[in-house]
Structure formats: C-alpha cells, structure tokens
Write the structure tokens for this entry.
Amino acid sequence: MSTRKKRSIFDIVDEYFENLEEWTERFRESLIEKPSWNRRACTIEPLRDIMVAPAEVTLTVDLPYAEENTIQVKPISKDTIEILAKMKRKVRFDDFGITHYKGEFQTLHCQTHIPVPVDMDKMEIRFKKGILEIRLPRKHGYEIPIE
Amino acid sequence: METKDVPHGAVMLFGFPDVGLVGVIAASHLISELNLTEVAYVDSRLLPPLIVLHEGLPHSSIRIFGNHNILLAVSETAISADTIYPIMHTLVDWGRDKNVKMMISMSGIPVQDRQDIEEIKVFAAASSRDTLKMVQDKGIEVLKEGYMVGPQAITMQYCASKGVPAITLLAQCFFKYPDPEAAAEVLRKLTKITGIKMDVSKLLDKGEEIRLRARDVMKRTQQELTKMKKTQEYDIPLYVS
C-alpha cells in the first residue's frame, strides 16, 4: 500500500489555481472556432479521438497521407502530447478547387490534452490503416483498502 | 424546389452526414460514377444561413440528384438535431409524391477497433417484414436488435408509418473519422439490392484524399451527433414486449 506525500496548504492552493487557469484557457480555446489549417506553419490539424478507460487512455489520430517513418509523438507536458507527421505530398487549396485562399501544407500537426493522469514513459504506439493509436496506462493515487 | 423533371417510380437514396460520413462519401461517388444531375433542392428557413458554392454558383446544402431510375438526396453539411424531423419528413413526402418504389438510406454503424477489422460487414434494417425478407434473400445480414440514431432512423420510422418500403444499410465504420472503405462496402450491397452497377475501385484509390477533404465536415457532424446522443447506438436495448 503506497502512502500519500504530505503537502502544505499553500502548495495545494497553488496547484488548484494553476489547474483552474489551465482549464479556463482550454475552455476559452474550445469556444473560439478556428480553421483546421495553419497557413503560416503550413500544417493541417488532423481529427483525433480520446477514450478514457479504467486502466488506460487511448488516443487515436487520423493521419491521411502521412509518411509513417516521419510520425513523431512527443509528450510536451505531463498531460499534453504533440503529434507531427509529414505528408507524402504537398496539399494546396487549389487541389480542392479553392481559389480565394492561397497556401500549401505538408505537415499534420496537433496537440492533445489528456484529461487524466497517465504514465507518458509507458506509451505504446501503433500505426495502422492511416490511424495512429497511442495507449497510455493511467496513473492512480493511493488505494483505499477494503475491509 | 425542383429544377428539372423528376422521374416517377425511381429508387430514392439518402446520403446524409453521420458516423464515418459513410452516406455522404457513398453518395458523392454515386453522383460522379453515374453522372447524376441535380433535379431538386431543399429551401427552408430551418437550415442554417449557409450555401455551398460550386464553380462560383450558389447551391442549397441539401440537394437531390437523379437520372431516369435513381433519386439521391445528399447533404453537404451536418443537419442540426433540431431540424432532422421536418427535413426528413419533407424529403420522404416528396419521394412519395414521385411514387418512388423504395427508399434506401446509406450510413454507418460505429465500431470500436475498426482499424483491426479486415472485412467490413454491412447490416440492414427495413420498414416491413416483406422488405426485410427481400434484404435477407440478397444475403445481407439484418440488424435485429438495437438503437438507431440520426437522419436514417427518422426516415426509416416515417417510411414504416406511411407504408413506404425502406431499407437502411449500415456499414461498420469509424465513429469520428471519414471512412471511404465503409462507403465502398455500402455501395457493393446497394448493387445487390438495386442492381445499380458501379465501380468502387476509384473510391478506394481516392481514400486518403477523401479523408483529408472530409475532415471539416466530419468535425461539424460530430458536434451534431453529440447533441443527438449518437452513442446511444452502443447501448444494449431493453425490449419491452
């Protein structure tokens, strides 16, 4: 049975306000609609899905045209993962018949927040049928024994 | 609103945004393979203030394409959960007015681990026992018990109440990602039922392009599916006899 490390009240309050600030920022971003492409960075944001199960978190990302050997999965914080993949070919707005925007894209890029504590070091990655699957085991706090 | 003469006695198909965008992708392929032309469109204040521009000209987001024996209703944007009933009822009533012999909805059924499925199954539901038997005789597996959520559910239920033969074809697909392979399977089963022959190899070849183009429509569709509580399709039903 693991024991809980004692923290001061000030640490707990600081952590609370940090989490609140992060949550507010994410909420604000979710309300602002923005295009799924970024002309300056020449990137397209792929579709993704996250499933939280009791033992693990599964993040899937749809990566059409991605070159498998260029896929990068990077934990950038304890709860955020960045995914980058180069596309097999450049895609332009012209390819879709769109002439009022100019731009070309060659990278798929996204950052995803993981809503529960996970162990990033034990990440398992699979790429099949153009879908990237990332499995992360969950971290749990101390267990309360059942008597 | 009709823009051309509409044939009577045709088969009416529906391809609306849903899981995997199966219906929309299948409909889009049908339009290009069979050279279907626009014969009508939906004009309603229930629709959002949105038009689709093709070659610089404005079009309604919900249009009906056709030839001498097919009518195909397709939507290029997600239909709001609030407006599904009046829109689908209007389309079915319009089809009845054109004496369509059957209505077929093309859509998907979301499955977990879709990536690991090598052979995609297509299930069918029908509006009457005779239609169900016809589908089974064609070798298509029937969706016996469960929930159906979305435009195809409303179409099926309304057709059943009006005595119009209707079938819903549902291919196993991704919940949140465009699925051209599932669309191809639905089209193969459609050929079995209707005899409409088409080549799906081009659809599969363009799979990655379709997945890239369809991202934004999929995202919008997801928002509407959440409002409709689409995940109820995963629930085990309680059958009250």
